Amino acid sequence: MCGMDMVFVLQNINFFSPPDSSCHLYAYTVEEITIGDTMNFDGFDITLNDAYTSEGGEFESPDNDHYVILDLTNDESADISTMLQMSLQDDEGYTHDVTIFTEAEGSLDGEIGPDRDNRGEVPFDVNESGEYELVFENPFTSGQAIWTTADI
């Protein structure tokens, strides 16, 4: 793993409709974060431990240019499905879903018990890009967090 010092930008986007209106408004805040920082989204904390690329391993190679691997930790209140809640967008606007990569460690998926954290690497098979956006959303609420990074 590489321990690059990267800066990420977090955007919390919360959509809502006023009670007497059919229009949808949105509000967002932008916060710069780096590897090791913890962010709160939708009632739970998520930490970006590391981000790196891989050309593949003994059993698989990427269909695109390389894998981007995000090492994340979530807190005890999270119930995450990486396949349903995470995607990575490149600087040309292409969105890439979570993929299977056998060398990724741990799993971020599922619900965990009280006073426990869950750590796992989330792989994406992506094109070369100067910037990536990790889009994290809860399909049962109307908000998302977006982390933007360059130089992975």
List keywords for this structure.
mainly beta, 152 residues, Immunoglobulin-like, 6-stranded antiparallel sheet, 4-stranded antiparallel sheet, single chain, 53% strand
General description of the model:
It comes from Salicibibacter cibarius. Residues 34-145 form the DUF4352 domain. Keywords: Signal. Pfam families: DUF4352. This is DUF4352 domain-containing protein. The chain has 152 residues and is mostly beta strands. The chain has one domain (7-150): Immunoglobulin-like (Sandwich). Helix content is 3%, strand content 53%. The protein has one helix spanning 82-85, and strands spanning 7-16, 25-34, 38-41, 44-54, 66-74, 79-80, 86-90, 95-97, 110-111, 118-126, 131-137, 143-150. It has a 6-stranded antiparallel sheet. The protein has a 4-stranded antiparallel sheet with strand order 3-4-5-10, with no helix packed on it. The protein has a two-stranded antiparallel sheet with strand order 6-9. The longest helix has 4 residues, at 82-85. It is globular. It starts with 6 loop residues before the first strand and ends with a strand. Mean pLDDT is 77; it is low at 1-8, 13-18 and 24-30.
